[in-house]
Amino acid sequence: MVQQRKAQRKESLAPKQSPLPVRANKKQFTVPHPLSEPWQTHAVPLPFQNVFSISFRIYNNLPEVRKKKEEQKKRMILQSNRLRAEVFKKQLLDQLLQRNAV
Prior knowledge:
Blueprint: H1 2-13, H2 48-60, H3 63-101
Region (Disordered): 1-26
Protein name: ALMS motif domain-containing protein
GO molecular function: microtubule binding
């Protein structure tokens, strides 16, 4: 009985080993998400301006937003081309009417 108690004491005093081996010389860190921003790892809150600019940049890089902006640019170019064509028609018509009047 005495020997069993001594054995139990030795087992309870011995350091318990975790199921996963831990390297003593390296700290274990979680791997950050590849799309995460550096500001997400800070413990100190950032000013509103910085957070706003970062979220605005992320939003502008979304594929839907890029496509929408490209379509809007195309519409603006088409509209300006139509206006130029109308102005050209008016100028050409004015020139023809002036020649016929003389």
